[in-house]
Amino acid sequence: MARFVAPIDALTAAIYSILIVLTFTLAFTVIKRWPGYNQPIPEGFGTELFFAVLGAAVAWALIDGLMLALLSVLARGEKHRFLQALQAADSDEEAIEVIADEFDFVLDPIASEKKRFLLYGDVLEHLRDSQPRPVGFQREDFVEGLSVALVAIVAAAPSLLPLWLWRNDPLVALRVSNIVSFIILFLLGYRWGRYTGANPWKIGALLVLAGVLLTAIAIPLGG
Fold first, then answer.
1. CA gyration radius for the chain?
2. E strand or H helix at 77, and its extent?
3. 36, 15, 23, 78: which is closest to 207 by C-alpha?
4. Is residue 211's pLDDT more than 80?
5. Which of 84, 154, 184, 212 is deepest in the core (most CB within 10 A)?
6. What is the b/e burial string over 52-80, where b = at least 16 CB atoms within 10 angstroms of the residue's CB?
7. Rounded Cα gap, residues 54 and 181, in angstroms
8. How far is 96 from 117, CA to CA, in rounded Å?
9. Are 184 and 155 in contact (CB under 8 A)?
């Protein structure tokens, strides 16, 4: 899948998938503490819980994939508008201003004004007669979105497995699932740190803490 999905997109999808699972599994503790809720756990609850969390994880994965595909379409639209503005300019100076508006925020800290405008002149010559790519939904968008969805589902799978293996004892299943989820969050944070050059142990621990805080906020609000 690395051919189709950037590492940051894959890590982000995996992290969100785990947080969705945690929101469901940790909510059960809140429900059990409601006043008057002292009835025994009904038979078959574990199986229902597994399929409910599985459905939520799959639904979120598909949403995540769809959003990434739509963002790809949006990015092409931005490039299309940039090229249209450049080619509609009445003079080379105006076209270079269009290019500068697009790239100055990146190049200004690392290149002098003279060097930048020499580069912008080369960009203008290259793009003056270029044809924009189609803006609509493309095959690679579908592949990218599907790959992200699969990453999210695979990331959630270890947390879902205890819910099935201990479906006859939901309390044990939930505890094991939560432990697995936080371990995976730490591993994803460690991987994120390695990829970005930050301290992987700190990023892993920070992500676990963030997971605890986010679920603690989401559950009382109905998440």
1. 24
2. helix 45-87
3. 15
4. no
5. 184
6. ebbebbbebbbebbbebbeebeeebeeee
7. 14
8. 8
9. yes
| DSSP designation for 111 | S
In which residue are the tokens 């459905």 written?
55
Global confidence as pTM: 0.73
d(CA 215, CA 178): 11
> pLDDT tens-digit profile of 21-31?
888 887 765 55
Whether 187 has a pLDDT exceeding 90, the answer reads yes
Per-residue HEC secondary structure of 141-158 comes to HHHHHHHHHHHHHHHHHH
Distance CA 80, CA 74 (A): 10
pLDDT of residue 223: 46
Backbone angles phi, psi at 186, to 5 degrees: -65, -45
Residue with tokens 């986010």: 214
Q: CA distances (Å), 82 to each of 9, 85, 103, in order?
A: 25, 5, 11
- Check whether 122 has a pLDDT greater than 80: yes
Convert the pLDDT of each residue in 67-105 to its tens digit: 888 888 888 888 888 888 878 888 878 888 888 888 888
Q: Confirm if 202 and 193 have CB atoms less than 8 A apart.
A: yes
**181: helix, coil or strand?**
helix
60 with 16: CB under 8 angstroms?
yes
Going by pLDDT thresholds of 50, 70 and 90, the confidence category of residue 129 is: confident
Residues in CB range of 177: below 8 A, 6 or more apart: 21, 25, 159, 160, 162, 163
Contact between residue 94 and residue 163 where contact means Cβ atoms under 8 Å apart: no
